[in-house]
Structures are given as C-alpha cells and as structure tokens.
Amino acid sequence: MASDISIGERKLLSYIKNRAGLHMGTKNLVYLEHYIHGYDMALYFHGIKKSSIIPEGMQEYVEKKYGFLDRTAANYFSIIIKNSTDEKEAFDNFFDLLDDYLTSIQCEPLPNWDNSEESKKQILELLSHNKPE
After folding, report:
1. Residues 6+ apart with CB under 8 A from 54
2. What is the DSSP string of 25-65?
3. Residue range 54-71: average pLDDT?
C-alpha cells in the first residue's frame, strides 16, 4: 500500500522543485535522478531509512500514465525523459507526476513556493511541523 512521504522529504523535494538552480545548477531530470539516488544511498549507509525519498508506487503510476507495460528495464526517470522534449520539461513533468501521484493516494501535493504571502504561509506551516522537540 502506498503511503505519504515524510515532512522532511516534502520539504527537501519542495526546495528542489522550486529552487532547482540552488541544488543542481539547473532544472535537469538526470541531475535530479542522481541527487535522489545519492540521498537515498546516504540514508541507507547511515541506517536512517531503507526506502526511497520518492513514495512507494511512483514507478507503477508513471508506467500506467504513459502506457509503459514492459517493466524490463526502464525506471520512471527514463520513462519521463523518453516522453519529454528536453531535460527542463522532463524535470517539470516529474514533479507534476509526483503531485498527481500524491493526490491519487489522498495526500497533499508538494507546495509551490514563490514570494507571495500564501507561499510564505505554506513554508512556515511546513517548517513548523518539522521542529525538533
């Protein structure tokens, strides 16, 4: 059964989604794939967590969305890249699909942040859920 991602994971993914240049230099899905694999690997080696930062079930969701039924080799990053015109579009498509998937499992999509008062309110609310006790 699919489950939501943690507040910390939401925070990290939201930062990357909305400020890709600060984390990776540019919006690029291949860079994001390596970033996520590195993050997951670090968690695993430190015994913090054994699963991915991406919610369980995302692979199947992307396969179904693009009608990719042959599960022999392609991960969701490859499927998204194959169905996008360039890396920037693939990056944006990934986060659109992630939001769609989170919504499909009755979870909130990642917040979009800009300089509006509503975005600042969302950021503060998200951060207030992640304070150490």
Report:
1. 5, 36, 98
2. SS--HHHHHHHHHHHHHHHHHTTS-SS-SSPTTHHHHHHHH
3. 85
Long-range contacts of 91-99 (CB under 8 A, 24+ apart): 91/20, 91/27, 91/28, 91/29, 91/32, 92/27, 93/29, 94/29, 94/32, 95/13, 95/17, 97/58, 97/61, 97/62, 97/65, 98/13, 98/54, 98/55, 98/58
Q: Where exactly are the structural domains of the chain?
A: 7-128
pTM score, whole prediction? 0.80
pLDDT at 5 over 90: no
pLDDT at 132: 44
CB 4 within 8 A of CB 105: yes
The answer for 7, left when phi > 0, alpha when psi is -120 to 50, beta otherwise, is: alpha
DSSP annotation of 74 reads -
For the stretch 12-53, pLDDT in tens is 898 899 888 888 899 999 999 999 999 888 888 888 866 678
Please tell me the total number of residues recorded for the chain in this structure. 133
**pLDDT over 70 at 108, yes or no:** yes
